[in-house]
Design brief:
Number of strands: 8
Order of helices and strands: EEHHHHHEHEEEHEHHE
Low-confidence stretches: 133-138, 198-229
Distance between the termini: 39 Å
Shape: elongated
Mean pLDDT: 79
Strand content: 5-15%
Length: 318
């Protein structure tokens, strides 16, 4: 399986599938810890630098997750609102990281001024003017006010980020699982397994079916999802008769495929396959996948016949 870049695949798995779980766990934890450090003065001096580094690293992880999500989008299609929320989450996370870095800098300068104020005063000559530290009293309050404002800003951004993490995670899970789960029951997997294991000696005309009467979505068990088991000449008129999600035939490159079982399993969502049912999808498939090996291999499993014209095959074909 060919990878298009560092954010595409790793170990033949999408990078996005590996990084998103770390992001949705580590990002909220890091921000909760950050807010705790900001508003707990007793631990702030010791943990200011470590928590800032952690937030920066998690911010980088969030960026990697977004980039890998876009790489996955090029493979399976636009996830819709999930991608929109992800863009907002990346922006808000970036602002949180910047605010945290500024908060650290202000704390660093404030600690430095405190250290200078606590150190012994050097001896001054008579030429030295009085009030050598006249600016110090006015500088410290300014740093304190700025730090407090940044602390409040970070708290607000952190809450917004936590909300966005939930929304991004929910919309992503919905895009991945909702349509697949809606077509199942709590026992459908067991029924599909029983259907597969209870079948007798395989033949060229037998097809494993799931509980709905369609193909059992279990390619990992070795089942070949060929709906009829017999490849035959098929006309475009016949393809058009199978234009629903319960019977979805598609013509691609003068071949006909029954994609009924693939609708609920398509990574980009069932809507992308439903829109092709009963049509010639050659142009759309070529534009999206071209000669990519994996999509073409998956498609080949659903081949049921060759596309012919009416004059090439007698009207007795049904």
């Amino acid at each position: 399986m060919q990878s298009s870049g560092p954010f595409d695949l790793i170990g033949e798995l999408p990078v996005h599938a590996l990084t998103l779980h770390a992001t949705v766990v580590l990002l909220p934890l890091a921000l909760i810890a950050l807010v705790a450090v900001i508003f707990t003065k007793r631990i702030q001096p010791r943990l200011r630098t470590p928590i800032t580094i952690v937030v920066m690293l998690v911010g980088l992880l969030t960026l990697v997750t977004k980039e890998s999500g876009e790489a996955l989008e090029h493979r399976i299609g636009d996830p819709g609102v999930h991608a929109e929320y992800a863009d907002i989450l990346t922006l808000v996370t970036g602002l949180t990281v910047l605010a945290t870095m500024l908060w650290w800098l202000l704390g660093f300068f404030a600690a430095r001024k405190t250290h200078q104020a606590d150190s012994p005063e050097p001896l001054h000559t008579e030429e030295s003017t009085a009030e050598p530290h006249r600016k110090t009293p006015s500088a410290s309050p300014m740093l304190s006010i700025a730090s407090q404002m940044l602390s409040l800003l970070i708290a607000v951004l952190s809450v917004a980020t936590l909300i966005l993490v939930v929304m991004v995670g929910h919309t992503g899970a919905t895009a991945t699982w909702k349509d697949q789960i809606s077509n199942t029951t709590p026992t459908s997997g067991l029924q599909g397994e029983d259907s597969t294991t209870s079948s007798t000696a395989p033949s060229s005309t037998s097809t494993p079916t799931g509980p709905s009467g369609h193909l059992s979505p279990s390619p990992t068990r070795g089942a070949t999802p060929t709906p009829t088991g017999t490849r035959r000449p098929i006309t475009m008129a016949q393809v058009k008769q199978h234009s629903t999600s319960s019977s979805c035939w598609v013509s691609i490159n003068n071949k006909v495929y029954d994609l009924t079982a693939w609708i609920s399993r398509h990574p980009g969502g069932p809507g992308r396959i439903k829109s092709l049912c009963g049509t010639d999808a050659t142009a759309k498939f070529s534009e999206k996948h071209g000669q990519e090996r994996d999509p073409n291999q998956v498609l080949a499993k659903y081949l049921i016949g060759a596309l012919v014209t009416e004059h090439q095959f007698p009207p007795r074909v049904r």
